[in-house]
Design brief:
two-stranded antiparallel ribbon, EXOC6/Sec15, mainly alpha, disordered N terminus
């Protein structure tokens, strides 16, 4: 029983739970607040028969609700019936009221049609008035914008771009923001950047045209600036001279007043002429319109691209500077090439200086200095290169003048030009070199045209003409009557004049170099020294070495150089006079002409001696001795007599030279004496070498006798005093070596020679043992060969046995002396 009751209790509990679940599900369905899917799923997912049970519960619930509705309807049915009854009563009144309202509405509508029409008209007018007011207000805002835009277009049309940019700025900042909602304003806003770019392009195009214009006109600008600088310099020089004249005027008051008034009138006239000329001269602004660069600068500054514009301008100008600094290949051929080159450079920097002073920031002093330093280095390199090609001193001088004007012009614009003046000193050296080359040709022409004979003067006028050209003074010559001859030849005054011309030419280059008189004096003296020591000296040396210059010409050259040497002091005075520098100044250089002309004289003297010796050698070469002759001819050789006659006639030329003063006489006499002594010594040496010639193997005593006769003629020539001034037998001593050697063989005095050898009182002191040995061996061989040819060998041995033994003994003794000398040495 107990077991059966427990299952029933649990079943009942489950059953109650299921009923509760269905009730909850129905409550949820009735509420319509929760989704039904979940509720229905909970019903159907519990048990297999849940659907049927749920449907039963649902039907029961529906029957309950139907009963409640029925109860409620039964409760309110009487009220409903009463309301319907009252509504039917009101229906008749409502119909009557409807008719009245309809009639009233019809009458009201008819009466309000006119009012409605007037009201609508009033509303329409009010709307129009409001619209008009709005339009007026908007037009008042838009009209200034349109006016400004129209003004902008007009400014663009007349190319007032800077004003146009200002107008754009006002449009953007002031006017357009007020009416930015309108479409035409948006179009304007879109067009403004395009207009700005158009203005930039147009202004840049104008700038390019400006750059092209100044490139074309830079040479004219530079030429104008250089003319103005030159006129200013001339004006300053004239003014300085005027002050100097006034300062030095201190005597004859009445006369000085007249001169002062004349000078003032002259100076005033000069100034007026300069002013008139200045009015005719165009400036850079007259030649080039600078407004494009101003406009472009302002435009780019307003647009905020000022730095871009500055960089572009400087870049283009640097390119133009490189083009301007590039010279033509043929510039060095004419001065016009240099002038055009300098004019372009000056024009370039004049424009830059103008831009520097009329604009702010476009060109700075640092930029111009940097550009000038670059240009200056290029200019100096170009001038160094092209001036080196120039061989014409006149062209170099004109180049120098152009450089000075070029430097003065740019210095007036504030550019440093010290390096240009340093370059002028380099060009001055080259100028001096071209002058030296030119004067070298002049000197050669003068020497070629000279006849190397004294200058004949027939009367006083001719004498004064020569004296005016050359500072010649000779009191002895002045006492002589005309006609007479000056000691120098025609080349001397011509050389002197050309040296002075050279000094003038050198002085021309030193002008306008901003150097002191002392420096100019030093430069003139140095260049003159170069002319004398190098050019003139070289020409003299070449002249002396020429083969067609004979002994007479050489003597005249010696006389000429003496007079030129004496004239050097006058050249120093000449330089001092043109530079106003006294010669007593400590730093004043001296002319080296003295050494130049002394060297030339020494060279001429040496050439005289050389030519005499060469002539002697020519005579010696035609000598034809028979070294095997048994006896002499009894007279001197013909070649030697011809040689002596030549020497005698030659030295007569020396003695007949015009010795108008003691110096000339001493000079010509010394040269003649030295030449005579040199000729005799050379003749003696040549005769000695002839005897000792290694190719000559044997000599007969007859040949010795013939040779002795020739030497006697030489001694007679020396003793005849061919040139006056030798003391005693000085000239004969030139043949003493030959005389003692020949006496030794002619007398055959070997015992005396050997006994007295080495003593100061020896009769044969000048005979060297080796010389005696050589000649004795040749004589010995000659004796033996002669005996063999005559077939008298037996007789020779019989008659000359003692002489043969003597010769052998002497030979041995001479060899021992020679060996002793070599050992001692």
């Amino acid at each position: 029983m107990a077991r059966k009751s427990r299952p029933n209790m649990s079943e009942m509990y489950l059953e109650e739970n299921k009923d509760q679940i269905y009730e909850n599900a129905l409550a949820e369905i009735e509420s319509f607040e929760l989704p039904l899917g979940t509720t229905l799923r909970s019903v159907y997912d519990d048990q297999p028969n849940a659907h049927q049970r749920f449907m039963e519960k649902l039907d029961a619930c529906i029957r309950n609700h139907d009963r409640e509705i029925e109860k409620m309807c039964n409760f309110h049915h009487q009220g409903f019936v009463d309301a319907i009854t009252e509504l039917l009563k009101v229906r008749a009144d409502a119909e009557k009221l409807k008719v009245q309202v309809t009639d009233t509405n019809r009458r009201l509508q008819d009466a309000g049609k006119e009012v409605i029409a007037q009201t609508e008209e009033i509303i329409r007018c009010r709307v129009q008035q409001r619209n008009i007011t709005t339009v007026v207000e908007k037009l008042q805002l838009c009209l200034p914008v349109l006016e400004m835009y129209s003004k902008l277009k007009e400014q663009m049309k007349v190319k007032r771009y800077y004003s146009a940019l200002k107008t754009m700025e006002q449009l953007e900042n002031l006017y357009l923001p007020r009416v930015s909602q309108y479409r035409f304003c948006q179009i304007m806003i879109e067009n403004l950047p395009k207009l700005r770019e158009e203005i930039k392009e147009i202004s840049m195009s104008d700038l390019k045209d400006f750059l092209e214009s100044i490139r074309k006109h830079s040479d004219r600008i530079g030429e104008t600036a250089m003319k103005q600088a030159q006129q200013q310099k001339t004006f300053s020089t004239t003014l300085q001279k005027h002050h100097n004249v006034n300062y030095g005027r201190n005597m004859h008051l009445g006369r000085s007043r007249i001169l002062e008034s004349r000078n003032e009138m002259t100076l005033k006239r000069t100034f007026e002429e300069d002013d008139e000329h200045d009015e005719e001269v165009l400036t850079a602004q007259d030649l080039v319109d600078f407004s494009p660069v101003y406009r472009c600068l302002h435009i780019y500054s307003v647009l905020g691209d000022g730095e871009i514009f500055e960089n572009y301008y400087r870049k283009q100008r640097r390119k133009q500077a490189r083009l301007v600094l590039q010279p033509q290949s043929s510039m060095h051929e004419t001065v016009e090439g240099y002038r055009r080159y300098f004019s372009q450079i000056v024009g370039f920097f004049v424009v830059e200086d103008h831009i520097l002073h009329v604009t702010q920031g476009l060109v700075t002093r640092t930029y111009t200095d940097e550009l000038w330093n670059m240009a200056l280095s290029k200019i100096i390199a170009v001038l160094r290169t092209h001036s080196s090609y120039c061989n014409d001193p006149d062209l170099v001088l004109e180049l120098k003048n152009l450089i000075v004007v070029f430097a003065d012009t740019l210095q007036g614009y504030g550019f440093p030009v010290n390096r240009l003046f340093d370059l002028l000193f380099e060009i001055r050296d080259q100028y001096n070199e071209t002058l030296l080359k030119k004067w070298s040709g002049l000197f050669r022409d003068i020497f070629e045209a000279d006849n190397y004979s004294p200058i004949p003067v027939a009367n006083e006028e001719e004498y004064k003409i020569v004296i005016s050209k050359f500072p010649f003074q000779d009191s002895e010559l002045d006492k002589q009557c005309f006609p007479k001859k000056l000691p120098m030849s025609q080349s001397v005054p011509q050389i002197y004049i050309q040296v002075k011309e050279f000094i003038y030419a050198s002085l021309k280059f030193s002008e306008s170099l901003h150097r002191s008189s002392t420096e100019i004096d030093d430069m003139l003296r140095k260049s003159t020294n170069l002319l004398l020591t190098r050019t003139l000296s070289s020409c003299l040396q070449n002249l002396i070495k020429k083969p067609h210059i004979g002994l007479t010409e050489l003597v005249q050259i010696i006389i000429n150089t003496t007079h030129l040497e004496l004239a050097c002091k006058y050249l120093e005075d000449f330089i001092s006079n043109i530079t106003n520098i006294s010669q007593v100044t400590v730093h004043t250089a001296r002319l080296y002409g003295l050494s130049t002309f002394k060297d030339a004289r020494h060279a001429a003297e040496g050439e005289i001696y050389t030519k005499l010796n060469q002539k002697i050698d020519e005579f010696i070469q035609i000598a034809d001795y028979d070294w095997t002759m048994s006896e002499s001819d009894g007279r001197a050789s013909g070649y030697l007599m011809d040689l002596i006659n030549f020497l005698r006639s030659t030295f007569q030329v020396f003695t007949h030279l015009p010795n108008n003063n003691n110096d000339h006489a001493a000079m010509s006499g010394k040269v003649a004496q030295t030449a005579c002594m040199s000729a005799c010594q050379h003749l003696s040496t040549s005769l000695m070498q002839m005897l000792l010639d290694t190719e000559l193997k044997q000599i007969s005593m007859g040949a010795i006798q013939q040779f002795n006769l020739d030497v006697i003629q030489c001694e007679l020539f020396a003793s005849s005093e061919p040139v006056p001034g030798f003391q005693g037998d000085t000239l004969q001593l030139a043949f003493i070596d030959l005389r003692q050697l020949l006496d030794l063989f002619m007398v055959w005095d070997w015992s005396t020679y050997l006994a007295d050898y080495g003593q100061a009182t020896s009769k044969y002191l000048r005979v060297n043992p080796s010389t005696a040995l050589t000649l004795l061996e040749k004589v010995h061989r000659g004796m033996r060969d002669s005996s063999k040819k005559n077939n008298i060998f037996a007789q020779f041995r019989k008659n000359d046995r003692d002489k043969q033994k003597l010769i052998e003994t002497v030979v041995k003794q001479l060899r021992s002396l020679v060996n002793g000398m070599s050992q001692h040495t």
